[in-house]
Amino acid sequence: MSLISFLRAAGVAAVLSLAAACSQTSVPADGQPETTPLPMEDITVDTSGGPVRFHVEIADDDQEREQGLMYRRSMAADHGMLFDFNPPQAVSFWMHDTVLPLDIIFIGADGHILNVAANATPFSDANIPSDGRARAVLEINAGRAQALGIVAGDVVHHRFFNNG
């Protein structure tokens, strides 16, 4: 191999390494992509049993919303992902390439929960729609909504909502 060919190959390898390091997803040894967590914020859900707090990743652009929690293998019990849809709109989710079973909570502009889709099936392409125009959608581990008493009509407090 000539020096020029070597330098050219080394330059391509360096560019590919940099691109992989900057990517939001990585591929571990088992071949399944793993996503990098997004910036986190706290939210509170007012339930009949009292307030419940979550530490959530914020998915607020098309790429982040499309990626969501796909390929994640675990999530802490008090964590989740909050998807921003501004302006509020009818939305539908699916579980394509999502390993974790999830509760999907659709939230209106005033912070009131529109509906809860409990125990969404991993890897399913079935549509899971909002019952109205959602300002945001909260995904948490499956079964947590029921365990914590989170139901339609409860109020979520976060900077996305017009509820003070």
Short précis:
The chain is an alpha+beta fold and 164 residues long.
Structural class: alpha+beta
What is the overall number of helices? 3
Oligomer: single chain
Overall mean pLDDT: 83
The helix/strand series, from N terminus to C terminus, equals HEEEEHEEEEEEHE
Shape: globular
Radius of gyration: 19 Å
Described by strand count, sense and barrel closure, the largest sheet is:
7 strands, mixed
Helix fraction by DSSP (H/I, runs of at least 4)? 10-25%
Spatial order of the strands forming the largest sheet: 8-7-10-5-4-3-11
- What are the low-pLDDT stretches, counting only 5+ consecutive residues below 50? 1-31
- The end-to-end distance, rounded to whole angstroms, is 67 Å
Count of DSSP strands: 11
Beta content: 35-45%
Describe this structure in words.
With 164 residues, the chain is of the alpha+beta class. 19% of the residues lie in helices and 38% in strands. The protein is built from three helices and eleven strands. The strands form three sheets. The protein has a seven-stranded mixed sheet with strand order 8-7-10-5-4-3-11. A two-stranded antiparallel sheet has the order 1-2. A two-stranded antiparallel sheet has the order 6-9. Helix 2 links the parallel strand 4 (50-59) and strand 5 (79-89). The radius of gyration is 19 Å and the shape is globular. Mean pLDDT is 83; it is low at 1-31.
